[in-house]
Amino acid sequence: MKFTLDTSLATGLDTSCLVIGAFEDAPLQGSAKLVDQACAGLLQQLIKSGDVSTHWKDTTLLHGLNGVNAERILVLGCGEIEKFNTVRYDRICSSAGAFLRDHATTSAHICLNEIEVSQTTDYWRLRQAAVSLKSANYRYTTTKAPKDDDNPPLISASFNAGADMQAALEEASGIAKGYLRSKELGNLPPNICNPAYLAEIAQGFAGSYKNVSAEILDEDQMAELGMTALLAVGRGSKNGSKLIILNYQGKDEETRPIVIVGKGITFDSGGLSLKPGLNMEQMKFDMGGAASVLGTFEACANMQLPINLICIVAAAENMPDGNAYRPGDVLTSMSGKTIEVLNTDAEGRLVLCDALTYSQKFNPAALIDVATLTGAAVIALGHHASIIMSKHDDLAEELMNAGNTAVDRGWRLPIWDDYQPQLKSVFADMKNVGGMAAGSITAGCFLSRFTEGQRWAHIDCAGSTWIWGGDKGSTGRPVGLLTQYLINQA
Ligand code: BES
Ligand code: MN
Ligand code: ZN
Hints:
34% of the residues lie in helices and 20% in strands. By secondary structure, it is an alpha/beta fold. Bound molecules: ligand BES, manganese (II) ion and zinc ion.
């Protein structure tokens, strides 16, 4: 999808679809008002009669309106003006993106960025509209036969803004690229998207972006480094585990990098502590953290942000097998600390602990891991927010703020030492599960033992990265939060 800028009057534009917004309880504004004037008040009449809905997120498509050149007009309901805010704004932009995907629309002119949203700038509204539109316009097709009734995606989107706003569109382009990468990787089936596939994608970045290099460690190289915890998780799988290291240098070598680490379990069967069959197919989502850090890395390389960034993915498949690790095993992690395995389904923390130990060789300015770590994250916050944990208030706040700006929100949970005793083991330095209470926090506490002295934050995106059930699929989150954090650091 190509983004362009066009300040011509909305009514005169030759586009296949003009996208405008209308509040429930306020007069039509900007381009919507122009459209209404051009068609002699018909739009206002249709709103009054209820034929055009102004309820928040509702969509109505009008055809061949007199006085308007556009073939169609898509009206987005904005709801009550008092309730309108950044979140509501973001959702109507997504609504538009999804609507255009599901109708045969290949070009559109978007005027939603004209709508006033308190505490926002023109720049933000344009950027957010472009990101949300493109991200919501995505459709998964890779492993499906093309169908006659599949509408082509939007090819070009122009926005009602002047040439001085080009930078906002470029930023949007970069962020949207990251979202789409994350969605596509999350949606790909586990027989395609395995650890080697993730490694190939990373190597592709090194080929296609400036200032990027990639290094892939195989199982032998990881064994040499003592990454026994990570390797244990992948031992039951024929697909070898990989440690993927991507380096983006957008600043001088002396600048300490930000290091983002992703959980890349390309399929989580639970291992010998096998998961129930229902919904198991969705356990391909367990590389959502990896997909997000790879997407974020791509966005950053695409925008050539002036920062140094390292992206590390711990990629493995958790399978039951004669060679699989077992409950009862005691593993010596790369850090030297020993771990008693009580449940092979608590595998994310095992791959991450070694990846986090490895990360420290880069002397990170900030170390952030992103993982679909616990089912308890879904219990705690549902699907609306990623969990943020950090002992560093400033880092937690930076991540929270970034999430708010990108409308990809996080919410903080404590990671107090009070929870640490839940990880006490009879046979090792710790066990890999902390019991029923505070499951997400004890998982974070486990990781904290491998990040001592680091400016570290943990993001549990188990709730935010995937939509369950009928419309199942990746949301690409938290690419928005992470890229905004990096933009703010630049
Ligand atoms: N990837 C899962 C977490 C998960 C499961 C998130 C289902 C969302 C839905 C993780 O590897 C896992 O299985 N965690 C266990 C930990 C438990 C055994 C301590 C969980 O949350 O049940
Ligand atoms: Mn698991
Ligand atoms: Zn898992």
